[in-house]
Each structure stands twice: as C-alpha cells, then as structure tokens.
Amino acid sequence: MGVALARAAQWTAAGSGTGTLEITPLNESLLNQIIKFAEDFSTKHPQEAAFVFREPLEWKTQLDSSVFGEGYDINEATVQSEARGKDGQPLLVLSASTLRVRSFDQLSRLLRIAMEKKLKEAQACLEANRDPIVKILGPEYGTVEGEDMSILHLFDKVKKESDLETELKMKIVLLLHQLDLQLLNSSLKQISQDVRLNPAAVNNEVNLLKNFSGQGEDTVLESLEYTSDYMFSNGCRAPPWRQVHGEICYLVIKPHDTDPLYITCSTAGVFLNGVIQKATRDIHSTVHPSKTIHAWTVRSFLNHNMLKNILEKIISVFFFFLNKPKSSSEKASKKDSEEEGKSSTVPLTTKKTASGKSKTVKIQQTSKWYGKTSSSLEDVGESSSETDEDEQPVHRQEGGTDLSPEYWGVQKLAKYVKGGDPTATVIALCSMRDLNLSQETCQLAIKDTGCLEVLINLLDTEEIKCQTGSLKILKEISQNVLIRHAIADLGGLEIMVKILDSPDTDLKCLAAETIANVARFKRARKTVRQHGGIKKLVELLESISAGSSYQAKDTETARCGALALWSCSKSTKNKKAIRKAGGIPLLARWLKCSHTNILIPIVGTLQECASEVS
Amino acid sequence: AAMSRKGMKLLVDSLTRSSKHFNKSEVECLVNLFDTLVAKASSDFAGVGFNRIVFRDTLHSAFGMTDDVVLDRVFSIFDRDNDGCITVMEWVEGLGVLLRGTLDEKIKHCFRVYDLNGDGYISREEMFQMLKNSLLIQSADEEPDEGIKDLVEIALKKMDHDHDGKLSFMDFEKAVRDENLLLEAFGPCLPDIK
Fold it and tell me: What residues of chain B lie within 8 A of the CB of A464, using their CB?
C-alpha cells in the first residue's frame, strides 16, 4: 500500500504540509480497491484483523457519533469501541471529529458503517497518514525505495522466535505487499492509456536516433532530418494550422537501402505518409491522421550485426509512446483513398498481441522487423552477387502469453525427440512433419522450444533413420530466414557437409537440399566452403552411369547437388572453388539431360559462375 | 549328417528357384552356414534344423538385433510351420526377405513382427509392449507409462487411416509407403546396413 500510494496515486503539490489526493479516476479506483481490501480484511483474515497497530491511524472524520451502533460506547460526542487492546485502551476512539483506529477489525467495521461516505473517509485517512504501514507495524517497516529488506528481517525473526505476534506481523506485511502489487498493476493500466506523445519526447527520440545515423557501415540509418528548421515556442515544428490537428513535426528518414520515408509525428502517434508528391505543400496539406490510433513501426533496415541488439532496445523505447494498447488489436489500415494520389497516412504494421495487458512497462512488441524485400532479395532467380541477402534478421519480440497451438504440438513431440530412443524419435519426427511446417508460427515454435538444437544434434549421430527424419524437417523449416541463421549459428552446416560423405544416397540428397536452403546468406556460404562442402557437392554431380541414359536416382542426386551449388555460387570465392573442383565440365554434362527440374539449377549455377566480376 | 553332393546340388537348385533373392553361389553359402549352425545346436532336431536360441544368437551377432521381443517374433515368422525348428528352406527364404527383400516384402515382414498375437491388427497394447522401453529421459513429475501411452497415441494418429483404433495391414502399408521411415516404427526388426 505504501509503495502504491507513494508512486501511483496522484497527489497535489503540497501547499502547506501534506498534499491531498487529487480527484481523478485513477485515484478513485485506487481508493476503491483499498476500501475493498480493508473491508474484507476482517472476514478473510480474522486473526490478523485483531492485531493492534503500533500507533493509531488518525484523521479528521465527517462521521458523527450517531452512526455508531452496537459494540461502541457512545457518550455524547465521543465514541469508544468496546473492544480494547491488551493495554486496556479502546481500539477506536472518536472525539472532536478526530478518529483514531487501532486495528483492521475496527477499520473494516468503520467502513461498513460509513456506507456512502467511505470514499471520503478513506481519502481523509490516507491523506493524514501518508505511510500507513509505519503506523500499523512500526517505523522499521516504512516504505523504502529500492530494496526492501523488511520482509526478510521479519522472516528471520519469525524463524527465531516464532511467537504469534511476529507471525501475525509477517502475514500482515505480506498482505499489504500483495495489495501494493495489485494497486500498482491496476494503476499501470490506467496510466498507460493516457500517454500521449509530446514534442519533448519526440525531440529526444530524434536526437537519439540521429546519433546512430550517418554515412558509413556501422550506422543504422543514413539520415534523419526534420523538414523544418524552425521550432515554435511549444517545441513543435509543424505549422500552426497543423498543430491544431495535433501534429508535432515531420521527419525525413533515409535508411540505407531503400527509398526515404516521410514521417508525421502527432500527439496521436507517428505515421508514415503514403504517396510522395514532388510539391512539398501537398504533403502537409493532405495528411490526414486518422482519428483512431494505430500502432506502427518504422521498418528498420539494419545492415550491421553489431548494432542489432542495441537498436532493438532503443527503438523499443522510441516506440513506447507510439504503441497504444487500446486499439492495437485491430488491423485497420485506414488508407485515405484521397484522389490524385495525395499523400495519405498508412499504418505500416500493427501489433499482434492483445491490448491492455501492459503488465510491464516494457512494451510488448510484435512488430515485425523484416528486411524490406527479403523474399525477393533471396530469390534464386537473380544472379550477380550484389543482390545478396545481406540484412540480418532482427528477432521478433514475442509479447504476451498467447502461444499458438502449434507451439504445444511441437512441445509435446519435442519431448520424444529429446528423450526417446531412436524408435520413439523416428515416430515423433514423422509426426512432426504433419504439423504445418511451412507456417511461420510452427517454424518459430520449433526454434523456441529448443527443438532446433535437438534436430541438429540428431544429425551428428550415426542413426541413419534419425538423420533422415531430422533433415526432412530441417529442409522444410529452413525456408524461414530466422531458422536459417539459427541453423548456421548452431553449427548445423558443418554437420550437413559431413553427411555428404554418407553412403546413403537419400541422406545425401536431403543434406544437399537443406544446404541449398540454408546457404542463402553470405556467412553460411562461407562456412560451407570452409568445411570442404563445395568439393563434396561437386562430387554429387558425378553420376554412376556415365552413359547417355540418366538414371532417375542419379538425376535426383545431381539435382540436389546442383541446387546446393546454385545457392553457394552466389559468393565469389565459392565460384572459384567450384571451378577448382572441376565442377564446370560436370555441370555442362548435365545440360544434355532432358529433365527440367535438374536443368534449372544447373543452368542457374552456370550463370552464376559465368557472371563473376573480374 | 552331411548330405551327399548330389543331394546338396538338388537342394541348392530348388532353393535358388524358390527364393527370388539369391543366386546359386549365395545359396550355397547360406546352406553351409546353416549346416554349421545345426551342428552347433543341440541334437533335439536331429540335424534337420536349429531352434530358437541358436537363431537368436546368430541374428544377434550377425545383424546386431538385440531386442528379445522382436527376435522372438522374427523367429516365429521364419518358422512357417511353427514347429519350433527352422529348416533350411525356412532359413534361406527368411533371410531373403531380411537381406534383399523388396519394400512390399519388408512391409509384410515388419507387420507380422509387430502383430504380436497374429490377429492381423497391431493394437494399442501391442504397440505399448514394443515401445515401453523407448523413452529414455522422462520428467520426474510424469508417470512413466503416460509418456509411452502418449507416444502410442501419436503413432496411431499418424498411421491409423481407417480410424478404428488399431493398425490393420492396409493402414500400416499405406503409412509406410507415404513415409519410408515408418517401416520399423515400433522397433528395429531388419538388419542394419552398416
């Protein structure tokens, strides 16, 4: 209670002496909760209710003696309770409109008596006794900022002495702490709904981001500028006729690898302007921030691994103000269909988690951070090493506790994969393939449950069935960018290259196909080369039947090898390695084959090898 | 008793014809092996065949198959006439499936291994029997049988296509054709290619 009162309740500035509680919805709800707590106290915890306070809670009351009935000695204007403490003093005394209460029991009775006046009474009581805990239990239990050792000391005392008194004290302390947490939680909900953006906050964030922008490799953004240099006295840079609409300022953000973004900051949030017109006046005159509030994020185009984590944290703070829990669950995209392609605000992405559950101040983000054209960048259709997938995927931060059903399915199967013998493992792996592995939730569930490590460990065993089962799954889920990186980080590539030596052809094919999927980013390709993977993949192209007839199995093996080589050949050094391993004549030999599904990767690889910049 | 050369030749010829998997010289080797085993066996069967124990040892040492339940079943499959003794014919034919069987033959073989009571269905109890030692690491707060029962359910869900709560031969065959790894789903009953 003490903490909640000190932090969450809204007090007026102290005029003379103690302040008073403002009349706000937040305070009202706090008071109601406290009242409820106190009222129920004597019924819920009768023993603790009888505990006598160290000092009485004292305040000026508006009740008069007439409301008191049974259990009280009424003597004209003074009232005393019949219940008395060990020292013979009454536990409740009302004299000259000052009330002194010395136990929870009396407190709850009083509140019940007060009926419609209880809100005022509670307010008066709390205003007069700013730290009630001190009065109830004694000065050593006062509310402190930071670490609160009082419970620990009390616990030690209880262990040593174990008399009823200390035990009661302990219970009361715990109950009050519980009340504190409850109050803080509910007040947080209220507070976070009211947060609005203000110019100072925007200025701070812009300055922060400016520190991380600039030319050069290790910056996040190329530049981040206001559109106007002039700042009005209220901190806003928007012209006054736009300030009326709540707009604060406009920004031009140039990320490193896409077109500039035009942003509008307003008290309702931050928005991205849609279509860009040449005439700047169009931008300002037709921006229509919608009345309802959308959550959005700027897509961040990171191209440096080093700053990834730092930036996540910074930007999560930045967008603290932008995420309005209330309306985030709607995916409404209010694209103003204004004619003539005038700019309109478009919320880029929306939050996924349920609103209003802001249990912690750290905002739940499920804003998706993707490289802009991640799918097209990685496309095997493009040649030339420049269109590499260079971006590092930033991890999506999961918020809330809504885990998908796939998560539990994977969790269940993971148990058998991790702890079963090969027989059980194979059954579980086969079953896992029935889950919708192409769905992202499922893929990430496999990663999050720790299944990915197990799958890669299985590859390291000598059990062919387990290896096969594991590779079948890995082949599917490595379509996901995050999974690819995770596989590479966990050392999966080395093991897969080793598997290319296995006598089992099916296993080799699967390994090659999985390598083809994983090797879609630079680091993975390098790893493959460093472990001698290129040579082994070239060997897959050597078919056993060197004659003009192409056996189906050999064709399949060669196809998988070619797919892997195609992915790997995007790196210049790999192109050289393929050439050195004698890959070109082998590739050329397969050109005579008439099956299209092998021709595509073969031709792709040859195209890559031929397009070296030299 | 050693066979005469002519008898041997006749035997080998007939076996080569009936078994589709081995050529002549291979059959000869197998027959020789058989003879050695018979010699090792006790004299119960008077040189006609060898019994369960010898069979189990052989398979154990030759193929690394260790599961007793499975080995028992394999013996019963080999022993077509169910007389407790494996004759040379049964030996060669049985090995044909184990070593060189087509997928169909292997499916039949495995199904018969897993169908413990031979009623044409693999029931939950039979699956439980075979899988009961397959969970090596269990969480302490879980009943040991629960984990296996769950695994049986998972397997059933994957393979029971006619949803009758047990696996008929059709179910099993279809499941294995869809996913080859499930051939030895309930335990290794084929030799390891190592």
Answer: 193
